[in-house]
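Format is chain and fold; as here:
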Amino acid sequence: MNRSERGSVSLVVVACVGVLLLLGAALGVVGAMVRAHRAAQAAADLAALAVASAAGGAGDPCAAGAGIAAANGARLLSCDLEGRTATVRVEVPGPHWLGQDADLGAEARAGPA
């Protein structure tokens, strides 16, 4: 081994560790976004079912949907009721890492078969 090549493996190892850390951080952000989107979709589905179920009864069906959305960590953005068919849109806080400021939304529709 030449004296000029001494320590060159250290640079390669440091570069590989840096790439692995960057890749791990990117996968963490993507995983958090997927989890938040799944939570938003679940909250939207449950809120739409609550609105459609409460459509024929007393009280405000959209208030029932807002309560279900809030119980699932989401905020009800819109609630449309046509007959007994409900369409809702909810939003959940997304991952706020490295300056990202994106909340994730989902929409769902429920009604009689």
